[in-house]
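Ops channel
N.P.: pipeline sanity check, posting one input/output pair.
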């Protein structure tokens, strides 16, 4: 089975996270641009302030500095069609510090939008065009990207700064943005002709949530000496790479005597669609005679792998049966239960890919005191992709739960 182009491309880009001086953001940015409007629309569908269709205005939008004709570029300028909000969206792919001066420019432009509307943004681009040796590029930007949104930009009197970051950087940027979204919180499912390609891209971007400066150095700090006397990093850490059917049969035969490579481990495996899992290859290794150095957060025991795949396959079978399926018992209407802190952690790790059961939905959750929420005996949870029958009004997406805790209960989560 051959790996398709988009999977090979994203693997190539992900390897750059381990290459000194390689700038992953420059590689990821143009790819993400193709999907970002659809992705944010789906990701923020349950957000009380940002739900609704979001449109892309322009990547690398120039923001003119106050006292000269130089600019700082925001990664994307976007427009919330129903709410008339401009979104300044910034991308970070590693756990680096926030650029304070750059961030100050973003917030200053947001304040100006709120004070006098967004029309000055277009005027500033015109001023930059007139002062630039690349005036043609600015003219293209004005005609092709800005003109279709000129009226909406001018009418906007609200703007928000959104950061897309790996989980390791979340706390560093939390106080610098109106909304912080980690890569695994982005919706894995979008309405797009390229939805299948996005599923692959989302899987690889979600791996960035598992990477930090500490993990990079821990994974590759060991030096081994080979038989020739030269030193080399032990980079080959698997015995083979095979298809889903082959790895499933291998795991059925050997169980936990083998492990399967999957970035993000069991949680990421459960969070991936069966369609995506069927079209990729899998590294595997023996437990007792393992090869190379491993970060076992990214390896799944064979028995667990079989259980997850069998469960996904059974769900798909239920969905295909449709109306002839027997009524689902309430006792199997969820994947598990957890305490408050465990529930919050589940939401942080999986975002809108999980659902939390709460009778009465958003209103009831917001009206219940934080003390009662913390002391609640347990919370039911399930994957949003589950086909189990339920009253959806009594189930909250993970991202919505976190938003309500922050906004209604002032809880730092």
């Amino acid at each position: 089975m051959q790996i398709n182009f988009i999977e090979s491309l994203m693997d190539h880009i992900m390897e750059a996270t381990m290459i000194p001086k390689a700038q992953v953001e420059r590689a990821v940015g143009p790819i993400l641009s193709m999907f970002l409007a659809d992705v944010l629309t789906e990701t923020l569908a349950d957000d009380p302030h940002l739900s609704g269709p979001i449109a892309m205005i322009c990547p690398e939008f120039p923001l003119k500095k106050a006292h000269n004709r130089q600019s700082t570029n925001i990664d994307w300028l976007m427009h919330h069609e129903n709410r008339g909000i401009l979104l300044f969206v910034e991308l970070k792919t590693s756990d680096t510090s926030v650029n304070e001066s750059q961030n100050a420019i973003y917030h200053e432009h947001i304040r100006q939008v709120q004070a006098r509307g967004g029309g000055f943004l277009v005027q500033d681009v015109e001023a930059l065009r007139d002062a630039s040796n690349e005036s043609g590029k600015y003219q293209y930007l004005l005609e092709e990207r800005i003109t279709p949104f000129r009226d909406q930009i001018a009418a906007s009197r609200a703007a928000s700064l959104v950061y897309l970051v790996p989980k390791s950087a979340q706390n560093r940027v939390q106080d610098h943005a109106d909304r912080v979204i980690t890569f695994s919180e982005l919706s894995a499912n979008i309405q797009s002709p390229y939805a299948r390609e996005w599923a692959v891209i989302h899987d690889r971007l979600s791996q960035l949530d598992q990477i930090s400066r500490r993990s990079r150095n821990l994974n590759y700090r060991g030096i081994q000496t080979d038989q020739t006397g030269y030193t080399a990093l032990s980079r080959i850490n698997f015995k083979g790479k095979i298809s889903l059917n082959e790895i499933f049969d291998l795991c059925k035969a050997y169980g936990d005597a083998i492990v399967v490579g999957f970035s993000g481990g069991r949680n990421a495996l459960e969070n991936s669609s069966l369609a995506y899992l069927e079209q990729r290859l899998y590294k595997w290794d023996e437990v007792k005679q393992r090869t190379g150095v491993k970060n076992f957060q990214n390896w799944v025991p064979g028995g667990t792998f079989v259980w997850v795949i069998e469960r996904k396959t059974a769900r798909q079978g239920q969905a295909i049966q449709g109306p002839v399926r027997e009524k689902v018992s309430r006792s199997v209407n969820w994947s598990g239960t957890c305490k408050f802190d465990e529930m919050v952690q589940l939401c942080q790790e999986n975002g809108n890919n999980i659902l939390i059961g709460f009778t009465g939905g958003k209103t009831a959750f917001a009206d219940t005191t934080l003390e009662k929420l913390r002391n609640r005996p347990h919370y039911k949870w399930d994957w949003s992709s589950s086909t189990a029958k339920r009253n959806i009004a009594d189930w909250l997406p993970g991202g919505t739960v976190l938003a309500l805790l922050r906004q209604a209960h002032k809880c730092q989560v």
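N.P.: looks fine end to end. Confidence is low (pLDDT under 50) at residues 221-234, 318-332.
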